[in-house]
Amino acid sequence: MQNRLKNLVIVGGGTAGWMTAAALSSLLSPDDVSITLVESDQIGTVGVGEATIPDIINFNRLLGIPEAEFMKATEATFKLGIEFVDWGRKGQSYIHPFGDHGVDMNGIDFHQYWLQCHKNGLDNPIDDYSLCAVAARQNKFSLPDSNPKSVLSHIRYAYHFDATLYAKFLRKYAQTRGVKRIEGKVEAVSQDAQSGHIETLRLDNGTAVTGDFFFDCTGFRALLLGQKLGVGFMDWSHWLPCDAAQTVASAHNGPLKSYTRSTAKPAGWQWRIPTQRRTGNGHIYSRAYMSDDEAISILLDGLDGDALGDPRQIRFKTGCRETFWSKNCIALGLSSGFLEPLESTSIYLIQQGISRFISLFPDAGLPAAVSDEYNRLMREDFEQVRDFLILHYKATERDDSPFWSYCRTMDVPDTLKRKIELFKAAGRAFRYEDELFAKTSWVAVFLGQSIMPQSVDPIVAALPPQDVARSLDSMHMAMMRAAQNMPTHEEFIARYCAATID
Ligand SMILES: Cc1cc2nc3c(=O)[nH]c(=O)nc-3n(C[C@H](O)[C@H](O)[C@H](O)COP(=O)(O)OP(=O)(O)OC[C@H]3O[C@@H](n4cnc5c(N)ncnc54)[C@H](O)[C@@H]3O)c2cc1C
């Protein structure tokens, strides 16, 4: 008879805590396994307006959540990609789209054809061959067509939403499925004297909560894995030197955007995330290069509409835990590490942690081989995202501030160095193993930030230039036509998932 885990305890009711509770409750019967979530209203959550990547669609589908219902409840809009402004150099802008650039031909990557045309004088940026980027520039949106022959089958999307409302939505979902919620602040944690496993949490109201497996979703505090079990933190701030954010919501001004915008600033960057009722804004910066007051003034100057309140500061350290699973505890969300939201990856990393835990679901004996594998996979996920973020800072010609001079000249991890060199040499980009970011993503940033390969694929280089140019032209025209025929993002939302006015 297998000795199974019977009593799961989640500490923290932010996005991480409620995503974990919802996913576990969708798979486990309350008659079999009890799930308890402890959260403290007194402490609160991070909750800034957030952008996501397409994988979140799978998470919601796994839970059986109808898309329009979720979008209404979280005031969500659609996201087709991210516009990067002033990153490679001032005045330059490109879109990192979801979905592909063009269509690969004869087994050769599309971007090789684009490079060949570009060498022959083509002016159009590679964005012009991505349906998501073309539609985003026109503030249009349409759901993908399941017919692979339709040009609309190239649409991939994610959401912008209010993360606090998402946690609330998932809370209702999880509680309906038997998750028990306890309000209170954890003040003490006791461990088994021999194994060091966490046994009991003592709350400020005197309640004792026992469990045989714990999820540390306590945000930057990392109360269980960091503070109690003493798992160290790997600091990556020498590669990603931003360590603070000023955030504020603003009123909408102009058409509802179907993409996130990230604008480089003298010591960091500023995001713009449109949800249905307001725009979320934040200025991420390095306090070593900029004062808080200056950061606030840059944030406010960069708003499209009136600020709705005063800016709020959040401080952070970039990096991750040395291990994510120790003894009978896993850290998920901000307690497991933090990588700035440049590519909207934090919620994705929570999702990865949950799905990796589920695929490795242990017996009560908690075999070391299982936790070792979890730690290996999560470390790889964090490092791959880290490298992609560093690329945005490294691939720049900017020398107009000490911050950008540092980023341009800093040494980068060998894993990233190899990718940059390979692309520079022959325009090659690969997706390794389970890597999150596909070739299109790497190519978008390489080309968008002016890393041009020295040579083009020899097979493409040997093709008649006019044939290649004609193929690209017809792809571009097809995408322009498809985008023109789409409804505006605003019209689509109004019809499909408008949030109800309270
Ligand atoms: C500036 C910024 C911008 C971001 N933008 C994005 C984005 O665009 N896209 C994206 O994917 N992610 C983004 N993130 C990350 C995202 O906000 C977090 O990953 C996500 O909200 C998860 O947070 P969390 O649940 O881990 O922590 P929190 O939201 O901090 O929640 C922690 C929970 O733990 C509880 N808690 C803490 N201590 C105790 C205690 N002693 N007893 C009981 N309960 C306790 C709190 O009450 C709270 O419920 C951003 C983060 C920051 C800082």
Notes on the structure:
- The protein has helices spanning about 15-25, 55-60, 65-75, 110-120, 130-135, 165-175, 225-230, 290-300, 345-360, 370-395, 400-410, 415-425, 440-450, 460, 465-485, 490-495, and strands at about 5-10, 35-40, 50, 75-80, 80-85, 95, 160, 180-185, 185-190, 200-205, 210, 215, 235, 245-250, 260-265, 270-275, 280-285, 310-315, 320, 325, 330, 335-340.
- The chain is of the alpha+beta class.
- It folds into three domains: about 5-45 and about 160-235 and about 320-385, FAD/NAD(P)-binding domain (3-Layer(bba) Sandwich); about 75-160 and about 415-490, no CATH class; about 245-315.
- α1 runs parallel beside α9 (about 345-360).
- The N and C termini lie far apart (about 55 Å).
- The model has no long low-confidence stretch (mean pLDDT about 95).
- The structure holds flavin-adenine dinucleotide.
- Flavin-adenine dinucleotide binds near residues 12, 43, 163 and 221.
- The site of flavin-adenine dinucleotide (FAD) has 39 residues, from α1, β2, β3, β14 and α9.
Show unreliable segments.
Answer: none
The percent of residues in helical segments reads: 25-40%
Strand order of the largest sheet: 6-5-15-16-17-14-18
Strand content: 15-25%
Query: Mean pLDDT, nearest integer?
Result: 95
Number of helix segments? 16
| Record field, number of beta strands | 22
What is the 3D form?
A: globular
Structural class: alpha+beta
Largest sheet: 7 strands, mixed
What would CATH call the architecture of the largest domain?
Answer: 3-Layer(bba) Sandwich
Q: List the bound ligands.
A: flavin-adenine dinucleotide
End-to-end distance, in Å? 53 Å
CATH topology of the largest domain, by name, is: FAD/NAD(P)-binding domain
Structural domain count: 3
Radius of gyration: 23 Å
What is the top-level CATH class of the largest domain? Alpha Beta
